[in-house]
Write a structure and sequence with these properties.
The chain is mainly α. Helices cover 62% and strands 0% of the residues.
Amino acid sequence: MSGFLDGIRCGDCECNVDWGERRNTIASIAAGVLFFTGWWIIIDAAVKYPAEEEFHHAFHTCGVIATVAFLMINAVSNGQVRGDSYSEGCMGQTGARVWLFIGFMLAFGSLIASMWILFGGFVVAHKPVVYPGIAIFFQNAFIFFGGLVFKFGRTEDLWQ
């Protein structure tokens, strides 16, 4: 997945833009837009449904955990996971892998929890307003996919 922007052609235009060199920029912007969209959706739901009966405020925990997972996943470079650029420290390559694994566990856990909140708290309970549950799910989905794009859409070859 990390080479998906390398073979993009710009049609028959005469602009000679090398998308491979702009790959990190495009992936960073796309991940930022996904992250921003996720939080924008949940802010909209919180403003539209401020009552505790319609939208329980503890449901924001999934989005906070997804944000922490986003930061954890992207705090470790691929070189550190492979052991290419990080050999010192208290745990070395193993510590980087454990950190990344915990980050992915938190990301998947928050996505699954948001589905449980959507279906268990809004759909099955036959609440008249389902939008807060949908907003929670989409917030976590956008943050999750933004984290994946930011982690695997960029390349470290352009850093050197």
